[in-house]
Amino acid sequence: MPHDLDHTDPPSDLEFRVKALVSLLVEKGLVYPAALDALIDTYENKVGPRNGAKVIAKSWSEPDYKAWLLDDATEAIASLGFTGRQGEHMMAVENTPSLHSVVVFKLCSCYPWPVLGLPPVWCKAAPYRSRVVSGPRGVLREFGTELPEDVEVRVWDSTAEMRYLVLPMRQDGMDNWDALRLKYLVSRNSMIEVEPAKTPAMAAAE
After folding, report:
1. pLDDT digits (tens, 9 = 90+) for 4-30
2. Per the domain annotation, does 132 fall within a domain?
3. Which DSSP string do the residues of 152-204 spell out, in sequence order?
4. How many domains does the chain have?
């Protein structure tokens, strides 16, 4: 689905420079494409999102921390050591049985790298950005997220002045799980909320 959407915006000068540098390093045998891909995958899908997953898991298991996160996300997240550039001006929004929030990012500076890791290509693509605003249910459906008609869908436009993180709903079967286990049910996509958090049964089946 949106994972293979083309980025219709022309690449920036910086992107051209990075691609040229990578090509040169590969050509000279200083960088191996497979190793580079593995490094990018680590930071995109493991290291970065794991920070945010710890934030969500702690909020699920500790009511006081959840209240702090919803009141002052920047400070609550920083208390776990996840700070730095583009980790400022954070706001957490909570999904409920009657409200489903989804986040859109117009620029890289809008994306909270310290908690979500590297932004996926589809997330920055113009088709995703425009379609999630005009028809969010259709985009969510393409990710496999089907919502009842009586659930309100709210799109949050992340900016450099306010970066949003979605607090997904707890799923069935989580009651006896502690934060150390809960974090494995949270993905980057569930903190943008194009997909819900996993259930324990889903995690066990993987």
Report:
1. 443 334 445 545 565 666 676 677 676
2. yes
3. EEEEEEEBTTBEEEEEPPPPTT-TT--HHHHGGG--HHHHHTSSPPPPHHHHH
4. 1
